[in-house]
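Tutorial, part two.
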Amino acid sequence: MVEPRRRTLWRELPILIAVALLVAILVRTFVFQSFWIPSGSMENTLQRGDRVLVNKLVYDFRDPERGEVIVFKSPMEWRSDPADEDFIKRVIAIGGDTVSYDADDERLSVNGVEVDETPFLYTDPVTGEHDTPSKDNYEFTVTVPPGRLWVMGDHRWASGDSRENYIRSGSDVEAATISVESVVGNAFLLMWPLPRWDWMDAPEPFEDVPNPNATDASRPR
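Running the prediction step on this input gives:
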């Protein structure tokens, strides 16, 4: 005798719900997770209250690349509140890169190549002026250690990032950079609010930056 379909559905429904919840938990834990933006450190790219979708799996297969926006577990020394664990910044330089800022031309360079950051640096909505790439035109030259990243917010004058912690720590490069292992994932999609929905690709200016090995090979010996 065949059991009525309605009774079978009600019997299977708790199993279907449990499976759906398990899949959702696995996806959130290992693949994708949304993060809410609480501060203005990444303006105008990201505004307060935005939500981004983060790919947590991609860096299991490769390291972060220059220009990508990442979420990472911040060093305790970077936090104004110990509970503020997750930070979001842009990768400016990777292990082996030399990143520098020259106040005369107000351009940041990576491996000797100037990077035009105007497409993503903060723009004042009233005056239309951009942040300088380094607050107060503070000059620096830093070689990033292997396995670490130099990260900065797009709103340079309002971001607790590598530059700020380099100054605060008395030019300690380890304290100013984050480990690749601390990276949670790549913020690849601005998903909310819907009118600002957009893919967050690495900007073109970083495509011209040579790898540090290529830079060294071009030097006379």
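The two ends are 88 Å apart (CA to CA). In part three we will examine how such features are distributed along the chain.
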